Amino acid sequence: MALQSLRLKAKADKRLRAGHLWIYSNEVDVGQTPLKQFSAGEQVVVEQAGGKPLGVAYLNPNNLICGRLISRSASQLLDKSLLVHRIKIALALRERCFPEPYYRLVYGDSDNLPGLVVDRFGGVLVVQISTVGMELLKNEIVTALEKVLKPDAILLKNDGKMRSAEGLASYVETALGDVPERVSLIENGTCFLAPVIDGQKTGWFYDHRMNRARLQNYVQGKRVLDVFSYVGGWGLQAASAGAEQVTCVDASQSALDVVRESAAMNELQSSVDCIQGDAFDTLRQLKQDEQRFDVIVVDPPAFIQKKKDIRNGEQAYDRINQLAMRLLERDGLLVSASCSMHLQRDRLVDIIRAGSRKLDRQAQIIEQGHQGPDHPVHPAIPETDYLKSFFVRVLPN
Question: What percent of the chain shows pLDDT beyond 90?
Fold first, then answer.
């Protein structure tokens, strides 16, 4: 099959040669290769200005990121065979890192499969496709996953925000087998239920696994508050590690129902309670009620979705961290996390520092966390490095 060529402007190949995978529409020589001649999802040979091939990319001519490189060979298309090969490479890393089959199996660009995310829950796979190029390969993706892993069931959870920007419809459908509303998983020795059909994203967030493991060193006999708890990833692992009492706070009653079910699975229901409500309002009410906690985890959703949100988002991080510090005992531990790619690590440190000073308290950062190895960072794509957490000892002056 002969592919059309996409010609880049002079010097526009520099990022690609350095390892990046994205092509921006303003880097294309539209005089020689007009973007309107390509269809969404089409695979093309990418050429530098002089005509030398750089590899194969799939396109969406309607987006600022109009192309994503999928091969450094001009003759290698992304098809079932290449999908099988790359899924096997991704699987090898996860099996090296984790003894049980619960992890992010495919992490988009970092696994050389841009636009594709796959989370594994034992025999159930949850797939998220966010680009037209990958959507056109949906059947091949399912077939490749069947070949490599022989799963019991595959769910296509294709309702992410990026799909609308790509002109894709939102849907959730079963591609293989029967997918229950809630699937089980094990993380750091604790059993959980994940609402894969109706829950957030794939139903679970594996990215904080290593940070949640660190938390277990600090919670024995302590009162723990898990803010923005979702289905209790932090809180239930704290309870499993011997916390005296854990309180999970979330706006979603259905998420808290899952917390209770997972607590019962682990025989932890006597040490876990839940508060449904807005996190900011709940923390203010707890302060009015003169409640105190030894450990507080603040792991909010991304307050900064786009660069234009940075100012308001940073203010939200500042408010929630200060509210949490007000509830800490005199020698308390704050775990402050962010999944906002646009919030720089040193900026979150500055927010923590400033918040502690406003309250006339002293902060000591005793540990720093990152996303786990099933979310590998692509060294040429800073957007793949998004997760941060700080374990902060908060003391009186």
Answer: 97
pLDDT band at 1 (very low <50, low <70, confident <90, very high): low
Name the β-bridge partners of 57: 44, 69
* Residue type at 74 in one-letter notation: A
Is residue 248 part of the annotated active site? The answer reads no
Could you count the other beta carbons within 10 Å of the beta carbon of residue 232? 29
- The pLDDT tens digits for 192-207 are 999 999 999 999 999 9
Is 114 in contact with 140 (CB distance < 8 Å)? no
The structural domains of the chain, with segments of one domain joined by +, span: 5-71, 80-176, 183-396
C-alpha distances in angstroms, 323 versus 230, 250, 297, 326? Answer: 19, 15, 12, 5
Q: What fold, for 183-396? A: Rossmann fold (3.40.50)
Give the whole-angstrom CA distance, residue 55 versus residue 74: 4
Query: Per the residue annotation, which of 66, 248, 274, 339 is the catalytic one?
Result: 339
Helices (H) and strands (E) in the chain, counts: 11, 19
* Cβ-proximal residues to 191 (8 Å cutoff; 6+ apart), any chain: 184, 185, 262, 265, 266
